[in-house]
Amino acid sequence: EVQLLESGGGLVQPGGSLRLCCAASGFTFSIYAMSWVRQAPGKGLEWVSVISSGGDTTHYADSVKGRFSISRDNSKNMLCLHMNSLRADDTAIYYCAREESTPFDYWGQGTLVTVSS
Amino acid sequence: DIQMTQSPSATSASVGDRVTITCRASQGISNYLAWFQQKPGKVPKRLIHAASSLESGVPSRFSGSGSGTEFTLTISSLQPEDFATYYCLQHNSYPLTFGGGTKVEIK
């Protein structure tokens, strides 16, 4: 059974940093691209970032470019999102999601990030 | 960046009604479009990929059509469990972009 389990969310002050991670199981993690998608409270879905299966290619939404960094460790079946210079509008539930030929066939349950003083 | 304009943003319908949701892309995306359903407090679920291919286990009352810049999700006969918010997603190019969502409410 495919499982994606996010961790690392919490309350952080504006300008602070946070690292989210997603532990994958139940599939061959190393052959799938992986993304982060977020959803602000009461709002729609926003794609954040993607990393290729081998980790050599990444893309970011303009809203997070230069502040967030996506990474993966295929030996540990782990995906991470390093978030710096956090702002109030980064407050959201952050989901990791798998990409097969089409995004996103499996999603984690999400982890809540709250940016507030 | 490709913008996805989804309409309507909300609709009220009764059980048994036919519901149609539209997504328009700001430029051609071939059939690189997926549809997702999200119920309150739940994780999004993919319903359709490649614009018209139904995911395994998704009821046949859901259908998708379109190519290029205009796409449609149709629910042929709305059921109580279909009341939710629906999103389209283009994956023709990065950044991936979702439509703004359509909330399907009970009339």
Would you kindly provide a brief summary of this structure?
With 117 residues, chain A is an all-beta fold. Chain A has strands spanning 3-7, 10-12, 18-25, 33-39, 45-51, 58-60, 68-73, 78-83, 92-99, 103-107, 111-115.
Provide structural commentary.
- The complex is a heterodimer of chains A (117) and B (107).
- Chain A is mainly β.
- Chain A has no helices and eleven strands.
- Chain A has strands spanning 3-7, 10-12, 18-25, 33-39, 45-51, 58-60, 68-73, 78-83, 92-99, 103-107, 111-115.
- In chain A, strand 7 (68-73) and strand 8 (78-83) form a beta hairpin.
- The mean pLDDT of chain A is 97.
- Chain B has 107 residues and is mainly beta.
- In chain B, a hairpin with a 2-residue loop joins strand 7 (62-67) and strand 8 (70-75).
- Chain B is globular, with a radius of gyration of 13 Å.
- At the A-B interface, strand 5 and strand 10 of A face strand 4 and strand 10 of B.
Describe the SSE topology.
The complex is a heterodimer of chains A (117) and B (107).
Chain A: E1 3-7, E2 10-12, E3 18-25, E4 33-39, E5 45-51, E6 58-60, E7 68-73, E8 78-83, E9 92-99, E10 103-107, E11 111-115
Parallel strand pairs in A: 2-11
Antiparallel strand pairs in A: 1-3, 3-8, 4-5, 4-9, 5-6, 7-8, 9-10, 9-11
Chain B: E1 4-7, E2 10-13, E3 19-25, E4 33-38, E5 45-49, E6 53-54, E7 62-67, E8 70-75, E9 85-90, E10 97-98, E11 102-106
Parallel strand pairs in B: 2-11
Antiparallel strand pairs in B: 1-3, 3-8, 4-5, 4-9, 5-6, 7-8, 9-10, 9-11
